[in-house]
Amino acid sequence: MSDQVGFAGQIAAEHISQVVEKGFKSIINNRPDFEGGPEQPTSAQIEEAARQAGLDYVHQPVVAGQISELDVRAFANHFNELPKPVLMFCRSGNRSNNLYQLAKQMDLLDD
Question: N or C: lower Cβ tally within 10 Å for the chain?
Fold first, then answer.
């Protein structure tokens, strides 16, 4: 966590107002749709609420334990282009944090 990025577990459309209140300008969703079953909110549902609230939104699903260099480079491109701060989320926040840390280690982030 820094002034540029925050990490969270699964969020839903009803959490978007809290995301805005905390000052985030963008969201990156790293969780594949239905990974947690049919009760998991879809990316489209969260994206619609995020965009209605004026947030930028990217869905970049990655599989836990299978993050590739291509995933890291794609993430870095999104992160560098999005308005900051960015909230990244997945099931627990760990996968998003790993993606961010790998991009930092590879010196791919502009921050």
Answer: N
Do 5 and 86 form a contact (C-beta atoms < 8 A)?
yes
Q: Give average pLDDT by consecutive 10-residue segment, the chain, 111 residues.
A: 90 97 98 95 98 98 94 98 98 96 96 67
Burial tier of 3 (Cβ tally within 10 Å: 0-12, 13-18, 19+):
exposed
CB 27 within 8 A of CB 19: yes
Backbone CA torsion sign across 25, 68, 43, 37: negative
Tokens in use for 14?
């009803």
CA angle 9, 13, 14 (to 5 degrees): 95
With vertex at residue 90, the alpha carbon angle to CA 111 and CA 101, rounded to the nearest 5 degrees, is: 35
Cα(54)–Cα(37) distance, rounded to whole angstroms? 28
> Which is nearest to 9 in space by CA: 61, 101, 87?
87
